[in-house]
Amino acid sequence: MEPYSMKNPFPATVLGVRPVTKPGSAKETIHIDYSLEGSGLSYVTGDALGVIPQNDPALVDALLAALGLDGAEEVNGATLRDTLITACDITGLKKGTLTKWNTFANSEKLAGILADKDALKDFVWGRDLLDLAQSEDMKASFPNGAALVGILPKLTPRLYSIASSPDAVPGQVSLCVGAVRYTPKGSDRKRNGVCSTFMADRVKPGDKVKVFVHTNKNFRLPEDGSVPIIMVGPGTGIAPFRAFMQQRVADGATGPMWFFFGNPYKATDGCYEDELEALVNAGKLKLSVAWSRDQAYKIYVQNLMEQDGAEIWQWLEKGAAFYMCGDANRMAKDVEAALLRIIAEHGGKSPEEAAAYLADMKAAKRYQKDVY
Fold first, then answer.
1. With 60 as the cut, is the pLDDT of residue 13 above it?
2. Residue 33: which of 209, 233, 270, 273 has the closest Cα?
3. Which of 341, 160, 285 is nearest to 235 (CA)?
4. Strands 321-326 and 367-371, how do they pair?
5. Cβ atoms < 10 Å from Cβ of 363
6. What is the value of pTM for the model shown?
7. 146 vs 60, 98, 370, CA distance in Å?
8. Distance CA 131, CA 107 (A)
9. Which residues, other chains included, contact 193 with Cβ-Cβ below 8 Å and sequence gap of 6+?
10. Where does the pLDDT of residue 1 fall: very low under 50, low under 70, confident under 90, or very high at 90 and above?
11. Residue 300 CA, distance from chain mean position
12. Whole-angstrom Cα distance, residue 28 to residue 264?
C-alpha cells in the first residue's frame, strides 16, 4: 500500500473539537484532535499537518441556485453538488479562474478588471464565485455542471502548525486553529475561511478528515535539552510552542523555557491558560503575556521583549535558541526588529554588529521562524 501523503491523505478520525478562546472573542480559536492510529504516519514537534477541507454545503447550494444548475447531475463519478463540496476551489478568485469564467460570461466589466493588475488585486479580495454568479454584469451561463467544474482549480490542502508532541499524546495529533470569519467592505454577506470553519463548525467527533504530515526540518527544538529556549507566538502562533513545551516535559529537558504570548483581551482571548499556568507553577516556564487592547495604549509581544531586553540578552549569551511563529508581514518583522535592538542595546553593538550576531544565530539554528 502506498504510504499516506499529500497525494494519498489519511482519513483521520476526529477525536474531539473544543473552543480555546471564550465566547465573544474576536480571535475565535478552536482545538481539534485527530487519531493517527493505523496510518503509519509519524511527526516531529515543529512539523505541520495538512488538512483537506470541504466547502460549506450552504455556499455550494447558493452557487448552484444562482447559476441554475442541478446539483444532482453526475460529474466525475459523483453528483455536481458533492464534487463542488469536496473537490473544487469556489472561494479563491485567481486570474486564471476569472479568465476561464469570462469565456462563459463574456463580461466587458470583468475583461476590464482582468486587464488592470491593480484593479484585479482589489477586486478579488474578499470575493468568491457566488459574487460573480449573483452579479448582473459578470454572471456566467454554463451549459452543464461539467463545464463549471472544468474551469475550477482543485480544492487545496491547508497547512497548520502541529500543536502537540507525539510523545505526550501517542497515536494522535492536535491543531490550534483560528476560525476565519469576516464581512468584506461593500457586502452584507458574511464570509468564512474554507478550512478553519470546516473544522470549527461542521466537523464532529467520529467524522473522518483527510490529513497528511508536512515535515518542517527548519523548525526544531535543540537536540540538547539543557539549552534555554525563547518562544514568541501571539494568537494561534502558540500552536507549535504548545508542542515544544509538551516535548520538553516528555523528554525531561532541563533547559529553561520563556514564552511570549499575545492576544487582544485577557477576559476572552486566553489560550491553554491552565496548561501554561501549570508549567509556570512547576517552575518549568517563564511566561510573558501582552493583552494588546486591555489598556488605553496597545501592548504587543515585541514591547514586552524590549521591556525585558536585558534578561533576553543574558539568555542569548547563555546560548538560548530563539523561535517565533505567526504573521510574516507584521508580527515577524516587528519581533525581529525588537530582537536586533535588544542585541544592539544590551550587547553594546552597532546595528551592523547586531545584524551579524543574529546571522550567526541563524547559521547555528538558534534563530528559527514558522511564519505565514
1. yes
2. 209
3. 160
4. parallel
5. 9
6. 0.95
7. 15, 17, 40
8. 14
9. 179, 180, 181
10. low
11. 20
12. 11
